[in-house]
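Two records follow; treat each independently.
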Amino acid sequence: MQVIRDGHLVADHWQHLDDDSPAGAGPCTVSCRRWLAERGALADHGSAIGIRLTGDDDIAAIAADLAGFALVVIEFPAMADGRGFSLARLLRDRYGYRGELRARGLFIRDQVFFLSRVGVNAFECGVGSDPEELLAALGEFSVKYQASADEAQPIYRKHSRSA
């Protein structure tokens, strides 16, 4: 399977484990609930570990562990569920997470650019989504007026007016 990471289509080697699946060899992600219940055993599993978050998860409960995650996946259970945008912004701005931040689930092409604005740098395409089309969405806007996770200064602070 391919994912979009940092503006490129790349092969994905991550496994997303169910809460009752054993952690095998290779990089894997687990739910926040599982991480909180099995933190010690999962940290010693021997491969890269990632965490999957939903809008119901409390980021503060895992804040101290964030630096140890090679990947944080934000699950989008429905296109209209905007809590993933808030999670991404909190992870980048409040908690300082600098690793791969991936959107997964039911997001649409129109949301890809705006997800990148709040700090998402990877996209796992859902069934029926065209990765090339989602990749193109990242470059549709050439001007960013507001400050955000991807741009610290608003446009009016970058350009002085000539009088």
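The next record belongs to a different protein.
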Amino acid sequence: MIINTTYLDKEKKKLINKIVGDSISWISLFRGELRGSNRMIIDEYSAGFKTKFKNINSILYGNIEIREKGLIIRIPIKHYETISWLIGYHQLAIFKSKNFSIHSAGEFIKFRIDSSYSLNNKFIRQLIKKKNSYVKTLEY
């Protein structure tokens, strides 16, 4: 689900917590888990984002936040607006080819593989572990 999170009210916070869960606890942070990635350059995105990003001629950046049941990809756009893509782990697909891409429910974002990507390697490995452990809890 793609929503505008420039201003968060109670309803948006409830929706976010329902889809991707609460943020990672402080205890997990003290154990060395990472909550968010460094910003990465977005090279390409699917049609669902085109209406949100129309009339943007500059480079788009995005960062990823890990939650209990999913992740949030935050993309700041012009005039201090922020678009967030909420993805549950059960819908998440991650690929690495010439780009690092995240897919869910027919939408995708492709991040450039450059120096900022190499800074996020530990974070991406942690994201994949979280996804795998969450999906195992869903299996019977």
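Discussion point: Strands lie at 2-4, 40-45, 60-66, 70-77, 81-88, 93-96, 99-104, 107-112. How would you locate this feature using only the token line?
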